[in-house]
Structures are given as C-alpha cells and as structure tokens.
Write a structure and sequence with these properties.
Elements: E1 2-5, E2 12-19, E3 25-30, E4 46-47, E5 53-54, E6 56-57, E7 60-61, E8 69-70, E9 76-80, E10 83-88, E11 94-97
Antiparallel strand pairs: 1-2, 2-3, 3-4, 4-5, 5-8, 6-7, 8-9, 9-10, 10-11
C-alpha cells in the first residue's frame, strides 16, 4: 500500500491507484487504512484518469482557494465544507449560485 505525507498538514495518507480501460490511472488519497475517508489538504484527493479532480477533506468537498471540483470538460464546482457555493462552466459563466444573495 502506497503512503503519502501531506505537505501542509503532515498527515500520513494512503494512496490507491487504479487503472482504467485506457491504462490511465485514477488516484485516490485516504485518511484511513480501510480507505473509506477521502482526504488531502495539499492537493486534490481524487484525480480521475479523464482529467477531472476533486479536493476533499474528511470526506467533504472542500477548497477555499479555488474550485473543489474541476470536471474533465472544464466546468467547476465551488464547495466549502461540502456546501455547494457556485457552479461555473468552462468559460467561467455562472451556472448556479447557491447560498448567496443575488440582487
């Protein structure tokens, strides 16, 4: 089992790499050895072979300095503590804004 030390938190994480049909790899970072809690602070905890990524802390979509999910098509979802704040398309056009008062 591969191990990784988060450069920000110093936590020891467990890494799972899986091959896809195209021989590209999905990469997942976990807080626990049973691999049930997705977690990483210094980068995405989920890296899909198709190019999509997800920032997850303690199984919650979370990122303060950018989108927590970047889909392979370029769309982005902005989450804080697993609350969806905003969705943008690949051209940064707002698709939805949740939890924010708009005029």
């Amino acid at each position: 089992m591969e191990r990784y030390t988060d450069t920000i938190s110093g936590e020891e994480l467990y890494v799972l790499r899986t091959k896809t049909y195209s021989q590209k790899r999905n990469v997942f970072y976990f807080k626990d050895e049973r691999m049930t809690i997705y977690h990483r602070i210094d980068g995405p905890a989920v890296i899909w072979a198709d190019g999509g990524v997800g920032w997850v802390a303690n199984n919650k979509n979370h990122r303060l300095d950018g989108p927590a999910k970047i889909w392979s098509n370029g769309d982005t979802d902005w989450y804080v503590n697993d609350v969806l704040v905003m969705e943008l398309d690949k051209h940064n056009k707002i698709l939805s804004k949740l939890g924010v008062d708009t005029p």
